What we know:
mainly alpha
Amino acid sequence: xxxxxxxxxxxxxxxxxxxxxxxxxxxxxxxxxxxxxxxxxxxxxxxxxxxxxxxxxxxxxxxxxxxxxxxxxxxxxxxxxxxxxxxxxxxxxxxxxxxx
Length: 100
């Protein structure tokens, strides 16, 4: 009876050791996979959220400017008097520059 207990004790130690080894290996594989993923993602050309929002705001402003200028151009093409004074502002003549 004593020998059977010793056999089961040894068997349980072997199984526990194998389970610990397998758990350690799985943690190591997971750690390596995470590191590889970080390296791969770090090599990609991503932009930060702040940069994205800044470009988005500039694009919205540019879109508004284009719409405003299209409306002004359409008014000028139809000969609308409301748009004409803004476009017909006379410029002051340039003075010739004298070399110093």
